[in-house]
């Protein structure tokens, strides 16, 4: 019994080392390698319904829209925030959103847009998986 108790105690002490205490893992895996369609915009935003946001596994993203929108950059999850940085921008972070509500194919991005100095909310749903790498 004593040996079983020691083994369980050791397991409980060692398990966190292998659990990958990376808070970014779930959001990165859920958002990444998918195309997301904007289904609702609340507030004044440069984005509109039916724009598509592509999050590539390698950290690149694209924003495309029927009105000619075509923006690219890099995305990352830092702590509990999603950060988007656009190519050619002088800002270190262009859009920041507290970690969105993720439910597999649904997310709510409460965005602070540093480029436009504005706040807006984008409700996005997964459109389809990206079965290839960007490069």
Structure description:
- This protein is an alpha+beta fold and 135 residues long.
- It has a single domain, classed as Lipocalin, CATH 2.40.128.20.
- The chain contains 2 helices and 9 strands; from the N terminus they run ααβββββββββ.
- Strands 1-2-3-4-5-6-8-9 form an 8-stranded antiparallel barrel.
- The longest helix has 17 residues.
- About 17% of the residues have low confidence.
N- and C-termini, Cα separation:
56 Å
Total domain units: 1
Rounded to an integer in angstroms, the radius of gyration calculated over CA atoms is 19 Å
Order of helices and strands: HHEEEEEEEEE
What's the short version?
Helix content is 18%, strand content 44%.
Give a topology summary.
Blueprint: H1 2-18, H2 25-31, E1 34-42, E2 52-55, E3 60-64, E4 70-78, E5 81-86, E6 95-98, E7 101-102, E8 106-113, E9 118-129
Antiparallel strand pairs: 1-2, 1-9, 2-3, 3-4, 4-5, 5-6, 6-8, 7-8, 8-9
